């Protein structure tokens, strides 16, 4: 049964997310009052308002909401598996590998798979290589993180090589994948992400008790009845799935996976893996970051990945400089 603190935290994050969504649908080159936004969503607005809200902005907000939630849940999972606050898909190279494979599909290098499928393949390859290089430590310890950083650097270099060897039009089409953007996202990719996120969340809720025990030592987790190997493999597979699907929609917006779980752990009850709070926080961060990118220097648009990097990089430095904790909680 959820405790009062966690329930209050999730409810507060849900309210903030709804406010962010309404604000994002309201603001832009054409301003739409919030009451008119609600009327448009219910199908009662005039044709112009309905077009602006439902056709131009809603799909983008939905893409941001889903991708932010997926990245945040993947980050929370990876941090729990590695017992390290820095172990997020972006930092250990999964984002960059997924991006490299997606860019390869976009620029056309003889690969006919869809970007979403290629992003999943890239995320899986990066994770398998990092896991292999980490050896007996698996997803635990700094060796896994260092291996992932190296893989991410190589994947980033591959992306740049691919972009440098194609025509300028193809490079421009692939550019949003390299910085993170929600502009003109594929409806099919968003649908696949929605299905994957719903399935992943349902599975995580079923194994939430086992995930909670991973925050303790292996001996304690085993004593509590947790099947460590199976739980870690399933958690790692779900983290890869969520990351690959999210990157196929928004590109590498990696710091969402760092910021959202940290906020969720701060406001929720210690001792639990805050998957729901992380998802809500990640969705809110992504929607707000995209809103800022669209409106701060309008009509010039700043990709959402750049906004999150500006906000999240100082926090990453703070984590690195702050004395480490023994536990994620």
TrEMBL record:
GO biological process assignments: siderophore-iron import into cell
Nucleus as UniProt keyword: no
The keyword Transmembrane helix appears for this protein: yes
Localisation: Cell membrane
Membrane spanning stretches: 58-78, 90-111, 117-137, 144-168, 188-207, 233-261, 300-321
Predominant place of localization: membrane
Top-level lineage group: Bacteria
Membrane association type: Multi-pass membrane protein
UniProt keyword list: Cell membrane, Membrane, Transmembrane, Transmembrane helix, Transport
InterPro entries for this protein: ABC_BtuC-like, ABC_transptr_permease_BtuC
GO MF terms, alphabetically ordered: transmembrane transporter activity
PANTHER family: FERRIC ENTEROBACTIN TRANSPORT SYSTEM PERMEASE PROTEIN, FERRIC ENTEROBACTIN TRANSPORT SYSTEM PERMEASE PROTEIN FEPG
GO cellular component: plasma membrane
Recorded family membership: Belongs to the binding-protein-dependent transport system permease family. FecCD subfamily.
Xref: Pfam families: FecCD
Name used for this protein in its record: ABC transporter permease
């Amino acid at each position: 049964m959820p405790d009062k603190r966690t329930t209050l935290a999730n409810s507060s994050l849900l309210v903030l997310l709804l406010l962010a969504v309404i604000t994002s649908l309201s603001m832009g080159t054409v301003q739409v009052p919030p009451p008119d936004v609600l009327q448009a969503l219910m199908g009662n607005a005039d044709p112009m308002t309905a077009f602006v809200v439902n056709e131009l902005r809603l799909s983008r907000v939905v893409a941001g909401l889903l991708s932010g939630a997926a990245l945040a849940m993947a980050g929370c999972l990876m941090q729990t598996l590695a017992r390290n606050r820095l172990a997020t898909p972006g930092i250990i190279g999964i984002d960059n590998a997924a991006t490299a494979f997606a860019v390869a599909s976009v620029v056309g290098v003889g690969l006919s798979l869809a970007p979403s499928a290629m992003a999943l393949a890239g995320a899986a390859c990066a994770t398998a290589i990092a896991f292999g290089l980490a050896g007996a430590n698996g997803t635990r310890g700094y060796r896994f993180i260092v291996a992932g950083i190296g893989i991410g650097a190589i994947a980033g270099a591959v992306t740049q090589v691919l972009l440098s060897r194609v025509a300028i039009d193809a490079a421009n089409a692939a550019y949003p994948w390299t910085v993170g953007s929600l502009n003109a996202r594929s409806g099919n990719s968003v649908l696949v992400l929605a299905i994957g996120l719903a399935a992943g969340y349902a599975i995580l809720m079923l194994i939430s008790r086992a995930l909670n025990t991973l925050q303790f030592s292996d001996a304690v987790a085993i004593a509590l009845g947790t099947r460590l190997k199976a739980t870690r493999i399933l958690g790692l597979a779900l983290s890869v799935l969520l990351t690959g699907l999210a990157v196929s929609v928004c590109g590498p917006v990696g710091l969402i996976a760092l910021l959202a779980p940290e906020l969720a752990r701060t406001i929720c009850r210690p001792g639990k893996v805050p998957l729901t709070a992380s998802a809500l926080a990640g969705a809110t961060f992504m929607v707000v970051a995209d809103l800022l990118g669209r409106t701060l220097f309008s009509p010039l648009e700043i990709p959402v990945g750049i906004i999150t990097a500006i906000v999240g990089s100082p926090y990453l430095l703070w984590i690195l400089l702050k004395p480490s904790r023994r536990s994620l909680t």
